[in-house]
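Handout, section 3.2

Students often ask what a structure token actually looks like in practice. Rather than define it abstractly, here is a full record for EF-hand domain-containing protein. The first block is the sequence as you would receive it.
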Amino acid sequence: MASLQRLPAAAVTALLFLWVFSCKLTISEHVEASIDFANMTALQKHAEFFDRNKDGIITASEIFEGFVAIGCDAEFARATAASLSAGLGPITSPVDAPLPHLSIYVEYVHRAMHGSDTGAYDAKGRFVPEKFEEIFTKHAKISPDALTSMEVQEMILANRDPLDPQSWSASEREWGLIYKLASDKQGFLHKDSVRGIYDGSVFYKLEGQRTSSRSDM
């Protein structure tokens, strides 16, 4: 997702109660969202995986479900759902959205973009191929189409905005999770996997792999 906000434990606990309330609200009151699924930006596609019922609105429970679907444990998924809902819900919610504004609206997800990123999304969340290629031309030293853990760390440090230190930890958490979930057994994060992060397609791949492995048990 676009950013993971750091919150004290007490705040996360309080937000979990709001999360439950938010989930009940979405059940009892149907809300329409405006989203053109045929012409989504790359960032909207990235977020759309977590919109499990495809109504253009991502609730905390859907975030939880999405992170579990790609292989995260329940405790991490629950804390991340609370953090993302609290941090991004108010930013992406239209003014007429029902309170408490803890749901993420796919149409406005570009509002949640943070600094210290690669620039592979433009200000509207559209994919920028030139910036994406720079990730590998600048940082992929061992293999031209893949990143090692150290190269990912190098890239994160190189993209830090000195005027926006609050964005540093968000980039570290996001890329740390990407590397953990999508790198191969040799420790390489391949170019096609990174591209799939930007448009969300790798999430569906990870979910499919997890479903397949469970069915083989």
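Discussion prompt for tutorial groups: Residues 2-30 have pLDDT under 50 and may be disordered. How would you have guessed this from the sequence alone?
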